[in-house]
Amino acid sequence: MARRPKTFVLDSWAVLAYFEDEPAGVKVGDIIADAHENGDQLLMTVVNAGEVWYVIARETSEVEAERSLTELKEIGVAILDADWKLTREAASFKAKYRMSFADCFAAALAKERKATLITGDPEFKQVASVLQVQFLNE
Known about the structure:
Layout: E1 7-10, H1 12-19, H2 23-38, E2 41-45, H3 46-59, H4 62-74, E3 77-80, H5 84-96, H6 101-113, E4 116-119, E5 132-135
């Protein structure tokens, strides 16, 4: 029987680790490669992509930030818009947990898509009981 494709949500922590060649970024690269091999989906919200963009722009340049987002799309990460349903779910996470609002969007997308959230951010430990989280630094 064929393996059913999985869905992974990348948060900004994971993507920045990947772009900055951190040890956890190697694991992100492996997840991306495995996703291509297995037909798995790689997703990210536009809010989290914006967070990646501004961090890279601040650390290097806006040109480099644009290049990084283009690369994300080229490696198969789908950047999804935040409609009201997703925003409402993110707001619900924010109301219940002490997390950044951007992180709440990643959590909301993972919950909505029944996906595994890929991160190294300890903020997500508090929601690990309500959605599947894969911590890169453990």
